[in-house]
Write a structure and sequence with these properties.
single chain; alpha/beta; Rossmann fold; 7-stranded parallel β-sheet; 7 helices; 41% helix
Length: 251
């Protein structure tokens, strides 16, 4: 396990699911961790307690990432209380699950604002305060290249996020900031409840992959932490798929 002691990380959407697993993994490796959340205060308090139990500093910040001015305020708060930011994990995601023909423009705007615009703005804010060696990791999904039921707006937003990852990897390279992505297959979290046919999706998420078991949030978190370690400095603009071989298997 690579140590990240002395570094400061911000994980968006870090109060539940994959985001919480990432925040905890970074904390276990010695990172001081800030995370944002929006609605669920109880889950945020629980996450804060778990992260603090790892013996690191923890800061929870309530912030609506659909509002650009709130993003700037969030970064000011994190850096003023924890210090210069070494790691940013753009994990927060939202979206309206409807076919293209049933989607309204407000649904499109909401989904793209949270899933693509916010990571862009967060990355730019982070780049202003990151020392050399900074890392940005964007959390995507296989819906960026596979067509999933009712996933139209979210899938498009994730494709945009992966393109954003590549562009920022080049643009922020001269600032000595490495930008990559991690794509998480179906994982058993509350996020699956957003699918219209959530029971079917949960069955897919719970079945064994070709690797012999289902993917867990911790599997994703370990890959994120690995990308933040010194050994991966020469990996840039890549989106690593964590799916146990599910997407290459015909089933």
């Amino acid at each position: 396990m690579s140590s990240l002691k002395g570094k400061v990380a911000l994980v968006t959407g870090g109060s539940r699911g994959i985001g919480r697993a990432i925040a905890l993994e970074l904390a276990r490796r010695g990172c001081d961790v800030a995370f944002n959340y929006f609605r669920n205060h109880e889950a945020a308090r629980e996450a804060e307690a778990q992260i603090s139990a790892a013996g690191v500093r923890c800061l929870r910040v309530r912030a609506h990432l659909g509002e650009p001015e709130t993003i700037a305020e969030m970064f000011k708060k994190v850096t003023s209380e924890l210090g210069p930011l070494s790691i940013l994990v753009n994990n927060a995601a939202s979206g309206v699950m409807r076919p293209a023909a049933e989607l309204e423009t407000k649904h499109w705007d909401w989904t793209l604002d949270i899933n693509a615009r916010a990571p862009w703005l967060c990355a730019i804010e982070a780049s202003k305060v990151m020392p050399e060696g900074g890392r940005i990791v964007n959390i995507s999904s296989p819906g960026s290249f596979k067509v999933l039921p009712d996933y139209f707006a979210v899938g498009v937003s994730k494709a945009a996020l992966e393109a954003l990852t590549r562009y920022l990897a080049v643009e922020l390279g001269p600032k000595m900031i490495a930008v990559n992505g991690v794509s998480a297959s179906f994982v058993q979290t509350d996020a699956l409840d957003a699918f219209p046919d959530s029971n079917a999706i949960k069955q897919i998420a719970s079945r064994p992959t070709p690797a012999g078991r289902a993917v867990t949030p911790e599997d994703v978190a370990r890959v994120v932490a690995w990308l933040c370690a010194d050994d991966t400095w020469m990996i840039r603009g890549q989106t690593i798929l964590v799916d146990g071989g599910e997407t290459i298997s015909f089933r």
